[in-house]
């Protein structure tokens, strides 16, 4: 009985001990796992060739698209929009400043018109008085010369 028990024990011990040389079945399995790259079938190769043939005329367009993606046109568009917004803000501020200046000039012009009208009325009044006074003096002088 000892011999059957000892042979089973030896087999178990043998399984637990490391082996110096791998078993051929294990070598085949490890190769399958590491080198498991399926070879393309002829239909896959034909599909790749068709894809190349169909995309070939569009290569210049695809290059432009790649360049556009690389240059990030959205960022350029955002920057251009920001520049345009700043320019618009600057122009609105300038327009508002010019409008304020125009309104000031209009109010000054109205003030000068009113002042000119008042000056004209006063000057006319002074000249009327002068004419009346001088005509009286002239008439008196004329009468004195006649009498004299």
UniProtKB/TrEMBL annotation:
Composition bias, Basic and acidic residues: 26-35
Region of interest: Disordered: 1-56
Compositional bias of kind Polar residues: 40-56
Source taxon at top rank: Eukaryota
Protein name: Genomic scaffold, ProqFM164S02
